[in-house]
Give the backbone structure.
Amino acid sequence: MHKYLRAIGFSQYTKKGAVNQLLRSVEMNPSGTDSLRTEQEEFVQYSRRFGEQIGLCVFGEREEDGLFSMDYYFPYLLGDRITSTAPSTIMRHSDKESYAGFCEETGLGISLIFYMQNPMDYMRLKYGKVPQPEGQSVILTGLSVEGKILFPVQKTPEQIYSTRAASRKRNSLIEAARRGDEEAMEDLTMEDIDLYAEISRRIMYEDIYSIVDSTFMPSGVECDHYMIVGEIREIETVVNELTREEILLLTVESYDLTFRVGINRMDLLGEPAIGRRFKGEVWLQGLVEF
C-alpha cells in the first residue's frame, strides 16, 4: 500500500484487497484518461479526483488482448501556482516508467528533486524523438502524513526587510559561485562561519525554532522526501468524496519557495492559522510544464 494514501483521505485503506478495489474503481470510472502508443507498447494513465485538487493516478499498459495491466499508482495533489522557473531535467526511475525531476533552485543551494505528476507529457516528447526534453517551469506540491504547527517568529518590519535583502544577496552569491567566482565562494564561506558562530551562541538560551525561521532539507533515504518548516500563507479544507475525511491544504512559504502541502486533519498536531508555521516531512511532487 502507498504510504501517502492517507494524505488524501484514505486512512482506512490499510488492506491490499481494499486498495486493489479502490484502484479498480479508478480504472473503471476515471475522471480523465490519457494514452500513448509506441512501436511496441501502449501506455495508459487513468486518473480520478476524489475532491478539489486531490486524487489517484493509475499507470500501466494495455495488453494485446485489450486488458489493462497496472504498473504503479500514486496519490496526487495539484498546485495552483508556479513554484520554480528553473529548468528541470527529467530522469526515469530504474524499475518502472515513472520519472523524477531535478532543478537547481538557487535559494536552496541544493538540487531540488521531485516525483513527476505528468509522465505522459514527457513520454510524448521522449518517444517523439525530441532530444533531452527539458521542463521550463514546475508547479510543486507536497503530501504529508505527519505534521505540527509552530508559532511564528516575531519580527519587526525592519527585520523582515533585512532578511529578504540578505536572502537576495546570498542567492546572487550562490549563482556567482556556480559560475566559478572565487570571491563569491569566499564570501559564502565567511557567511557560513559567522552564521555557525551566531547559532552556537544563541542556542545556549533560545529554542532552535526561534532561531531557524524556515528549513528545507532532504529527509531519509528517498531523494524526493524533505523536512520543511515554512510559514502558512493560505489554508483550504477539502473533503474526500468517498471517505468524507477532511484534508487540509496549506500554502506554505519555505526558503522563498511557495507551494501547497496536503495533510489529513487527523495527522496534524496543532491548529493551523495564517502566519503560523508548518513543520513536517513531505513527499514532493511536481507538475512540469514543457
User: Anything to note?
Assistant: The helical segments are 16-28, 119-127, 157-178, 182-202, 208-211. The longest helix spans residues 157-178. The chain has a mean pLDDT of 88. The two ends are 31 Å apart (CA to CA).
